[in-house]
Amino acid sequence: xxxxxxxxxxxxxxxxxxxxxxxxxxxxxxxxxxxxxxxxxxxxxxxxxxxxxxxxxxxxxxxxxxxxxxxxxxxxxxxxxxxxxxxxxxxxxxxxxxxxxxxxxxxxxxxxxxxxxxxxxxxxxxxxxxxxxxxxxxxxxxxxxxxxxxxxxxxxxxxxxxxxxxxxxxxxxxxxxxxxxxxxxxxxxxxxxxxxxxxxxxxxxxxxxxxxxxxxxxxxxxxxxxxxxxxxxxxxxxxxxxxxxxxxxxxxxxxxxxxxxxxxxxxxxxxxxxxxxxxxxxxxxxxxxxxxxxxxxxxxxxxxxxxxxxxxxxxxxxxxxxxxxxxxxxxxxxxxxxxxxxxxxxxxxxxxxxxxxxxxxxxxxxxxxxxxxxxxxxxxxxxxxxxxxxxxxxxxxxxxxxxxxxxxx
Length: 409
Description:
Oligomer: single chain
CATH topology of the largest domain: Beta-lactamase
Strand content: 15-25%
Largest sheet: 5 strands, antiparallel
Order of helices and strands: HEEHEEHHEEHHHHEHEHEEEHHE
Structural class: alpha+beta
């Protein structure tokens, strides 16, 4: 028995080194496979570069160093969140106080700001002119305001009308605008139908240039039929297949701020052009009686809804509508807004593009910062005097949109 036991020990002693070598060999093989795979992936990802600052990271990926290892972190967004948004801008003719404060409010974010005097249609500043005048983007939830005015004009709803959205939820217009409720506006889209939505959209200037002879401006687009994916519900809840520019947003928000006049936006660039500036009316929208129906929802967005972060920035009376969605791997954050106190009115339209931080609430925060900075330098006192004087010369009226009038009429 002892001899058998001793023989077994001898066999084990010879086998153990082999087992150890086999285990080490497998570990080395696995390590080599991982190293080769990492090398191959890094070489194939041409967007992989080390970053020096987060604000200048590449659109698709960045290299992260963890101890002695380097790995690639994938970024799903095709546009950077941070950039120099003033690059290529020509500020000639702008109100330099407004431009300085708009640029300061935008900071390192990748986006555009358009500031307009809604009583005249003059563009006071345009930060990131290439983006503001370009092909445009999906308007996201900013489309809800024109849709609401269309439904009010057609007599489909009143401000206090509650629409049943589910077994347990109903909502009125003020709540739906403040909270940016998609089902509510999808229901309105189905009730209105494509023809009526398109009619009012074009009256508000969608699909046409907002400016008068502004070089480089694109007209955006409006679809010729309901979107095949989502239909009227997605068209009217966040503007699917519509391309809106920041300039167009500023134009139709101005028409709400001033009581129904859709001006050609003008961008005077020289002292002579500023001295000879004359407002030009594109069309009159007979929505004056309907504007009080949407303003509570636009103020509600600022007070307790999707734009409520403004409350921590400024106490200016601001009315606005946010928009958040994504398009072609670019996240979008919109905010169209105006402030008013008596004759004093100012429109600020903001578009942010980039990664996940580019959302409507963030765009609202940028606009709030613009209003705050202008208030700090007492800009609104100057504006109040100028606009009170301008109010003595009312714009000529060409009624095209009458409350209760349908597209067929």
